[in-house]
Each structure stands twice: as C-alpha cells, then as structure tokens.
Amino acid sequence: MSLNNNAKLVVVLTQHGGHDTATVGFTIANAALSQGKDVAIFLTSDAVDLARQGANDLAEVRPFRPLASLIEDFTAHGGVVWACSPCFQHRGQRVEDNVDGVTVTGAGPMLEWIDAGASTICL
Question: I need a labelling partner for 41 at 20 to 30 A (CA). Which of 51, 62, 82, 121 fits?
C-alpha cells in the first residue's frame, strides 16, 4: 500500500498482554510519522492499559526498541493516541493515571479520520 504525503493513518490496537502487538503497532506508527503522515493510534479492549503510567516501563520485544520509548517518541513527534472511553471505564482506569498525550474518547475522532480517507491498520 502506498500513501501520499498528506495521508492519514489510523492504527487500531486491541491487545496489550504480550507486548508484541503494541510494539509492532507503535513501530509502524512511528515509521509513518517519519514519512510525514498524520498518525493516530486508537487503543481498544485490553490495549487501553497502554495508556496507564508505568504499564510499559519493562515491555521490550527484541529487536524492537522498548515500548515506553516508542510511545514517548510517537507522542513527542505529533502522533495522536486515543483510548476507547467505554473500554477505559470498564477496566476502572483513571485519566489522571495516563501517560502524557493520551486522550480518552469514543470512536468519533477515529471515525472522522476514516471518513476523511485515512488508511487503517488493525492489530
């Protein structure tokens, strides 16, 4: 798939447990950012735990960079992270415990990007 320089990309992450999926998702997202894409990650189901401070501190899937570093770089370079509000609430998470740059929201912003032509990757 080829994206033009003005394209948007939405990466949907559903799992957190083994860190493989999240690590690959944030690696792809960072690569797209480096190519000048607007990129958002939508965390849903178990992946909303990625929003929690400290949840990623020890997550490393070699040969990839540590997950916490991937997430920090993603948000520092303009990446958008949305956490599914109902999934977040279901797990009893609190907004004040989030890492910087995470917005708890419904699917609306993601769907707006998709309606505007964003490509999607679901992991």
Answer: 62
Report which of 102, 93, 116 is spatially closest to residue 13, judged by C-alpha positions. Answer: 102
**List of the chain residues with pLDDT < 50:** 1-5
pTM over 0.85: yes
Kindly write down the DSSP assignment for every residue of 70-98, as one continuous string: HHHHHHHTT-EEEEEHHHHHHTT--GGGB
CA distance linking residue 98 with residue 83, whole number of Å: 10
Cβ proximity of 39 and 73 under 8 Å: no
Amino acid found at 61: V
